[in-house]
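Is biotin placement plausible here? Inputs below.
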Amino acid sequence: MPLDDASAIRARQQVLGFLSDNAVHSGHELAATLGLSHSAVQATLQTLEKLGLDVHAVPGQGYHLPHPVEMLDADTLQRHLHPLSRTHIGRLDLHPHLDSTNTRLMQQARAGTACSGQVCLADSQGAGRGRMGRDWISPPGANVYLSLLWQFENPASLTGLSLALGVAVARALQAEHLTGVNLKWPNDILWQDKKLGGILIEATGTVGGGCQVVIGLGLNRYIPPRLSGAIDQAFTDLYRIQGQAMPSRNRLIAQILNEMIPLLVSYPRQGLAAWLDEWKTLHHWTGREVTLIQGERHVQGVLENISGQGLLILRTPEGTLHEFGSGDVRLKRSASAPF
Ligand code: BTN
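Reply from A.M.:
I modeled the complex. Tokens:
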């Protein structure tokens, strides 16, 4: 059965939803309750394993998922949204599976069929995209894959937006009792210097001269161990940090939207200035020796500061200050252990 065939996705959602109680269920019970054939149940369980999930077979009893699963649920999400968020969310789309929530919203924005405040969520992504052309590993059932479209009349008012949004995500996590969140320029969400999430911002112009911005957030709630090898940087997830005490996925998404939406409403007026001090408090790398990577270009220096426009200011070994608007920052290791 192909992985992204509509009926295969539907069966996957049903089986995952059923197994999300972490109890053991027999293949017979799964088939009878979900109205699937035994072979469809077997094929679905195999697909889940192919997608990186651990499905434990308990001899003589059935199957269970040893890890946390919580499917997207519109009612739970709506229940946790603040009135201001509800007012500004023009549309809330929940998809079992998409290539990429950002790609979907960008396509709709270009086609003129998307509205400001449109939210696109997926239970899994087949071609999730990270910054700098990286893949974003997006297994089903646990993590946050969220895109939000916002219309800005004046593109100049977007300066530093990605940094401010990092603060919004950090606040949402803190509200869910996560201590130790920090940020890395420009918009990585870290926990003890390990990547917990990231933001990918894309924009497209509109005829009236304004622009539509798609804010994509990926947040790790649970990355199955067998997918760890596919991630090329130190990472963590909420399950590793908080165990069973980690926040509900749907409530966390609502919480994030409750932080992002007031920010977006006020951003054209307030800009980064309203967020920069908090960003700097959450940023731990000022004064550290780093390498800034832009494709083939590697620039070493001391991370001096972040400008009022959100640019990274680096002091190179010659003592000159340089500003950067994009790139990846890595802590410099000793000369004998280059990265
Ligand atoms: C990063 O590289 O740090 C940014 C990752 C952004 C991933 C999210 S997941 C939801 C949205 N859809 C995508 O394809 N990418 C973003």
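Short version: The chain is about 30% helix and 25% strand.
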